[in-house]
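RECORD TYPE: inverse folding
INPUT: structure tokens
STRUCTURE:
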């Protein structure tokens, strides 16, 4: 099997702090301006409302959230079994700078040639990659060549493959969730324990990073399986999964 070097990626994000009132006075002011688009006429505008909006929305914005887990997987040939296995690894923790630094160091060392290495994810172009790059710059981290995307022409970022974009077939208004796409293709759902809306609670209340890591890894493997379906089986995903420490 001739396997291209494709790195399948997914990230999990949460609010940067647990509560709106834990933000600095300056960040609270910016959040209130942002929240104007979310407030309904019937809402009573107070700190309680802003706290609810912050907990519901902050994680999806790099300016108000943080990365707690990055999982990635790829097919690798095992000389021991003489077959391909799907290796999967996660960087996760409370120290976002360390998580990001470890990930980008690995990319710079092993997956930094856009002509040879492809990154694949669901909504990766509008969420995962921009989010990672923005948070990295906030922490003063350098981006490897493959992640320096600002100002690039569409044909200069062909190393980014987005399963959501693939499914749109040019229909820019269309959106489909990873879970629904998996269901359509008969792939086991990665949302059998938690989904994205629950990650903040699992992190801040349950303090269960291992659960978040497992969920993130399921998304990675699901993306790989969906990618295989989208290109009509031209890419075969190994059924043998090996977590790399």
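DESIGNED SEQUENCE:
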């Amino acid at each position: 099997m001739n396997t291209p070097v494709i790195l399948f990626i997914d990230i999990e994000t949460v609010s940067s702090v647990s509560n709106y009132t834990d933000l600095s006075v300056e960040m609270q002011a910016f959040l209130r301006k942002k929240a104007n688009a979310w407030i309904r006429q019937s809402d009573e505008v107070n700190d309680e409302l802003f706290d609810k909006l912050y907990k519901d929305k902050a994680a999806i914005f790099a300016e108000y959230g943080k990365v707690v887990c990055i999982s990635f997987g790829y097919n690798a040939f095992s000389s021991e079994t003489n077959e391909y296995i799907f290796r999967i690894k996660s960087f996760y923790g409370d120290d976002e700078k360390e998580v990001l630094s470890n990930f980008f160091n690995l990319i710079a060392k092993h997956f930094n040639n856009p002509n040879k290495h492809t990154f694949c994810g669901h909504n990766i172009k509008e969420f995962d990659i921009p989010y990672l790059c923005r948070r990295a710059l906030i922490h003063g981290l350098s981006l490897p060549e493959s992640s320096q995307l600002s100002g690039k022409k569409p044909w200069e970022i062909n190393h980014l493959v987005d399963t959501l974009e693939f499914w749109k077939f040019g229909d820019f208004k269309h959106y489909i969730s990873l879970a629904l796409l998996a269901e359509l293709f008969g792939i086991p759902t990665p949302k059998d324990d938690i989904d994205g809306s629950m990650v903040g609670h699992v992190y801040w209340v349950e303090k269960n990073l291992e659960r978040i890591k497992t969920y993130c890894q399921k998304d990675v493997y699901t993306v790989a399986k969906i990618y295989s379906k989208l290109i009509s089986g031209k890419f075969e995903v190994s059924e043998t999964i090996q977590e790399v420490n």
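NOTES: The radius of gyration is 19 Å.
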